[in-house]
Amino acid sequence: MEKPGKALASVQTQVPLVHNITNFVVMNFTANALLAVGASPVMAHAVEEVEEMVAIAGALVVNIGTLAPQWVEGMKLAMKKAVELGKPIILDPVGAGATSYRNQVLTELLETASPSIIRGNASEILALAGSNIKTKGVDSTASSADSLEAARELSKKYGSVVSVSGATDVIVSGSDVAFVDNGVPLMTRITGMGCSASAIAGAFAAANQDAFVAAIGAAATMGVCGEIAYEKAQLPGSFQTFFLDALAEINDEKLNQLAKIRQ
Ligand SMILES: Nc1ncnc2c1ncn2[C@@H]1O[C@H](COP(=O)(O)OP(=O)(O)O)[C@@H](O)[C@H]1O
Ligand SMILES: Cc1ncsc1CCOP(=O)(O)O
Ligand SMILES: [Mg+2]
Fold first, then answer.
1. 255: buried, middle or exposed (CB in 10 Å: 19+, 13-18, 0-12)?
2. Which residues bind substrate (predicted)?
3. What angle do CA 222, 228, 234 make, to 5 degrees?
């Protein structure tokens, strides 16, 4: 397995534009996380402009966190355009398994296009694979270790890389699996950490052809930066600030040294 530093260096040298259709809760934090890691964020969801925006972006991140029908229309238009132009799509199925509306919209989005990367927590990935699990709003009620089979199924069904976050991040691409053991539990106590993981996966996918390499690099970057931030702050408010600082200071060498990736 190639070390993740090279994939990060590609992001930092290319500074890709990442088009996010994401939720109201995390827009600001996600944009800051992308800027800090060395990418360029834009948030745009109006049906009137999503096609033009995706045309100038390196990747499209679709996050269903605060859904409404007009947004779904914009997501579908953007996804179709991304397919037409060969741009990678990252899908974050926020709250899959919490309500039937979310499940229905996810079915429609996955009929519209196959994402390069599906990034969610364990409950969301299990729900997406058809299990009856009830996600606790947007929070997971399952462990990433229990989602390996579901991730495999989804990866085969949609031809996507599936990245499941948790104590260990599980990343599946067809029959290939990688595990990333970085991160700290405090990351679950700040909203937008998973959404940022998906947005950063977008930056990595924009700058790296191989979606498996991109998803692993993004997960390792998130986890390593969480560990660096935790050395400085052990409470959510200050941790969030130090996490952004860590994203801004991470480089290929440090990432290679601290990433714990198993295959
Ligand atoms: N128990 C944990 N220990 C260490 N890192 C974790 C833990 N749970 C989640 N993370 C990390 O936090 C980030 C967000 O993951 P998660 O909380 O699962 O996403 P979401 O916010 O979508 O539910 C990921 O980078 C993940 O690796
Ligand atoms: C709390 C909340 N409610 C709707 S979207 C959202 C943010 C979810 O963010 P994350 O999946 O990164 O925890
Ligand atoms: Mg999430």
1. buried
2. 43, 192
3. 105
From start to end of 126-217, where are the E strands?
161-165, 169-173, 176-180
Cα–ligand 2 centroid distance for 24 (angstroms): 9
Which two tokens mark 239? 């941790």
We report the CATH number of the domain holding residue 160 as 3.40.1190.20
Interface ipTM above 0.90: yes
Output the CA 81–ligand 1 centroid distance in Å.
31
- Looking at the structure of the chain, the number of domains it has is 1
When pLDDT is cut at 50, 70 and 90, the band that residue 94 belongs to is very high
Buried b (16+ CB within 10 A) or exposed e, 183-220: bbebbbebbbbbbbbbbbbbbbbbbbebbbbbbbbbbb
CA–CA gap between residue 255 and residue 200 (Å, rounded): 15
Ligand 2 site residues, Cβ closer than 6 angstroms? 23, 25-26, 65-66, 94, 138, 191-195
Euclidean distance between CA atoms 242 and 71, whole angstroms: 32
Q: Which ligand is nearest to the CA of 163?
A: 1
Which residues constitute the domain of residue 22?
A: 5-262
Output the pTM of the full model: 0.98
Element spanning 59, H or E: strand 59-63
Q: Distance from the CA of 191 to the center of ligand 2, in angstroms?
A: 6
Q: What is the pLDDT of residue 182?
A: 98
